[in-house]
Amino acid sequence: MFAIPFLDLPPLTKASGQIRLPGSKSISNRVLLLAGLAEGSTLVHDLLDSDDTRVMIEALRNLGCDLAHEGGALRITGIGGRLSVQQASLFLGNAGTAMRPLAAALAVLAATQGGQFELSGVARMHERPIGDLVDALRQLGCDIQYLGNDGYPPLRLAGQPQGQLATGAPVRVRGDVSSQFLTALLLALPLASSGQGEAPGTDIVIEVDGELISKPYVEITLNLLARFGITVQRDGWQRFTVPAGSRYRSPGAVHVEGDASSASYFVALGAIAAVDAPVLIEGVGSASIQGDVRFVEAAVAMGADVRMEANRIEVRRGAWPLRAITLDCNHIPDAAMTLAVMALYADGPTRLTNIASWRVKETDRIAAMAIELRKVGAQVEEGADFIEVRPPQAWQPAAIHTYDDHRMAMCLSLAAFNGVPVRILDPQCVGKTFPDYFEALFQLAHTHHDLVPVITIDGPTASGKGTLASTLAASLGYHFLDSGSLYRVAALASLRQGVADTDGPGIAALISKLRLRFDGPRLFLDGEEVSDQLRREDVGSRASKISALGDVRAALYALQVSFRRPPGLVADGRDMGTVIFPDAALKVFLTASPATRAERRHKQLISKGISSNIDDLRADLEARDARDRTRAIAPLQPAEDALLLDNSAQTVDESVAQVLGWWEQRTPFGI
Ligand SMILES: Nc1ncnc2c1ncn2[C@@H]1O[C@H](COP(=O)(O)OP(=O)(O)O)[C@@H](O)[C@H]1O
Ligand SMILES: Nc1ccn([C@H]2C[C@H](O)[C@@H](COP(=O)(O)OP(=O)(O)O)O2)c(=O)n1
Description:
The chain is an alpha/beta fold. It has 3 domains: about 5-20 and about 260-445, UDP-n-acetylglucosamine1-carboxyvinyl-transferase, Chain (Alpha-beta prism); about 25-255, Enolpyruvate transferase domain (UDP-n-acetylglucosamine1-carboxyvinyl-transferase, Chain); about 450-665, P-loop containing nucleotide triphosphate hydrolases (Rossmann fold), CATH 3.40.50. β21 (about 380-385) and β22 (about 385-390) form a beta hairpin. Bound molecules: adenosine-5'-diphosphate and deoxycytidine diphosphate (YYY). Adenosine-5'-diphosphate binds next to α14, α21 and α23. Monomer. This is Multifunctional fusion protein. One of its GO terms (molecular function) is kinase activity. Keywords: Amino-acid biosynthesis, Aromatic amino acid biosynthesis, ATP-binding, Cytoplasm, Kinase, Nucleotide-binding, Transferase. It is an enzyme of class 2 (transferase).
């Protein structure tokens, strides 16, 4: 996950490849709750690992459920409908799929078995309405208090042992604000219909007021209830009967399918950019129980070329530009946001209607989408329950606010396919449902080599290049190339193989056969980690010698260039700005006085438990500098357009801040 303040996406051009989707959020959180309430234990496979499922898991643990990892799956032993913990304060983040059903289930359990529970979340959760659900539960006799504003969490749920619920009359609930209220009741009421002790229990009827929105989500609920042994009788979409004597029974094992809403970004990616080869989406398809899979129909209407199998979707670009559409999106409320971004690439205005529920999600999504799409140049009209998007006439680079809303971040990343870069602010908000979304995007999306931004840091040994470059890379979410480590690995390999340090062709031949693997800062040679051995002074010294050989430099060229991949690269070495990346967007030449550098290296070696003599180190580094500066090929020297930075008197943080400041001046984003 990119846990950084912003992530800059370079202009992207094409996409292809295969993606395995993370588990569905809606299914994961329903299954977690059902397994937590059921008798017996349930082994849940392919569960989504994200912010929203973590808060649900934590809540279940606090309620006395036993949860244990088994391989990649999670085993949940449920409470069997009997409270084992009578008092708890549960923090539910911004997860509507946790807040609403847990509120209903705990209200019913507290009212019949006694107990006191407090449910709270982040500030935005406390602005998301829950009044319609509370009203419905109060009809049954549940004792629910608002701890903040009326109609919104936080809530306190209370009750006495052997309490009775008024289940005789139908429970009425509004269905036109959020279908999660109905889902919450459907998940909770089997706890009340089962009867107490010898009592037989009663049928409980739920009647929906108003037109039920987002029906497919209710279908997921009914489907999963059936898996846990409860067959709800449905009359149209207005009346649901939970049968007397219902009891949750674990089905033993459940496989969570891939998230259909998350699939929408990759379906759109294929429609926009799968020009040469398809985007293959694994984990969801025509056999899905998730309503958002019908997003595919809308994407096809806009021109996507799609082949669907039971558990797999293959997408290519079809019509281009995409075709503008007008669509009632009630059946795909979450995935429809992706259409608003596809609309940027359409041949006319796209109008998405019946989306009032967008306004009460993680943020007011209609307002947020309108503001952010305008930033890239689109003309947008919004109303209470619709949005209309006209494609930009002139695209503009934009810094996109994400409003702590994962879908805003994922959607707007798709705006980077028309020649302009896009900055995504607060990219880790995708952690709500798809922590590795951007990694997946970069795996599939390509761009022209020269559109990937590069920052080069060149300079003499121990000037702090590696420290500066790796910190910059981490701050920007860019890849990092320590080019010296490639010379060092060539030095180590040639040392091991007994190839002379003057034998350019011999070492070049060796380089072409090296089996290297990079894992963050760790480097593996033929499967063996050699990171520490590369730092040996004899290896560094040999690296300096062999780096003067033209054959060696040529042999390492392609490998270095291959590090230039989206979203960007920070490369450190001697000739990054002069030879390898002469078109780098920012070149820094880093120096520090020989005395400072010798002292730094000395401290660095001591901290690693390696003893050394500071005078020898200084003599050694001055000899290395002289050799690196005076060699005939790619000598160490600042590029003409490099900015010089002497960090002798700077801390690491100061150098990093200085270079980030320079970088910011060269990016086109105004916040
Ligand atoms: N600006 C700085 N101020 C103080 N020490 C620094 C600074 N930059 C780097 N160092 C320290 O100097 C040592 C050498 O830095 P390193 O990044 O390995 O240099 P290089 O890659 O240029 O050989 C490290 O221990 C590092 O923490
Ligand atoms: N781009 C590069 C990087 C390193 N080299 C050579 C020159 C250096 O003395 C050696 C070792 O580089 P490295 O950056 O690891 O060395 P220091 O950490 O600065 O001591 O490799 C090079 O010629 N060109």
